[in-house]
Prior knowledge:
A hairpin with a 5-residue loop joins β3 (217-224) and β4. The protein has helices at residues 3-15, 23-35, 51-55, 66-85, 89-108, 135-151, 155-188, 242-245, 254-265, 322-330; strands at residues 196-200, 207-214, 217-224, 230-238, 270-272, 279-282, 296-299, 311-314. The model has no long low-confidence stretch (mean pLDDT 95). Helices cover 44% and strands 13% of the residues. The protein folds into three domains: 3-171, no CATH class; 173-236; 239-314, no CATH class. With 335 residues, it is α+β, with helices and mostly antiparallel strands. The longest helix has 34 residues, at 155-188. It has a four-stranded antiparallel sheet with strand order 1-2-3-4, with helices on one face. GO terms for molecular function: hydrolase activity. The chain crosses the membrane at residues 63-81, 93-118, 130-148, 155-174. It comes from Congregibacter brevis.
Amino acid sequence: MDPVTQGTLGAALPQSLARSERMGLAMLCGIAGGMAPDLDVLIRSANDPLLFLEYHRQFTHSLIFIPVGAAIVALALWGTLGRRIGWSFRDIYVFTGLGYATHALLDACTSYGTLLFWPFSDQRFAWNNVSIIDPLLTLPLIILVVASRIRRRRWPAVLGMFWVLGYLSMGVIARDVAEEEGRRLADCRGHTPALVEAKPSFANLLLWKTIYREAGSYYVDAVRLGSEPVVYTGSTVPVLDLSRDFPWLEQGSLQARDVERFRWFSMDYLAADPRFPDRIMDVRYSLLPNEIGSLWSIQLNPDAQDTKHVDYVVSRERGPGTFQRLWTMIRGRPL
């Protein structure tokens, strides 16, 4: 989730439990604790572009790491501010821990994948019930957290927590409805996929991307929920087959191992990018939910497959009218 939402939710939980004279401290510690796990993005390597994919949302997001991560943040706050102002380390640690505890669970509600049970499991949890950025979730929460601080009362923060839980619950219901629409669409095509997944499009719970796998291909469509759901038929792309798509790739080579690392990160939603040679894309994400145009991919090099890691490519390309088309789909209008 975006850092603003993480910090605000991190503040809401300790504020909802704090006494009035500790409301400011609860807010500060909660914000710090709520945002701190994402410092793992600093774990990078100039020689290995995929290293950050392995460590982002890994140990700092594990549930078992919460007491440790909270202690590190609390020590930093106490050392820089707490001793001089006279704050109790115990209060700092408790409030920071409450904020820290909200982070991974909120991240798991997105589609990216979070290692909640590291080091006991490398499963990436992605509950797909909220977009990574959603102003309808965040803005009311910010207002309530600020009101709680200004008024020095718990109830606005408590209301903020209920708002988040209610919104995420609505996301679960919407996701399940979108998945059912995806199954109906597959059935109309004569397909019987083992799994249909639905993922929210950018910043809303109305428009969803549906993905399923059938006969060696991914089928990507979009559905706008409502009393009469609107389906936006999408695209198909063959599932990645290394022997077919990259016959030159040597098994066990450095870049072949990188492909498997990227496969784990993408939860096996991989395909050869039809637009770029020697590029493998993550099919889960695109600017328009009924299109196959990955936001990130890896670029292989047949001339350096055992001497150089793959390149990690982030695509921010958007054609003319992309956001207008997205808004049209969110409104449920024909394209």
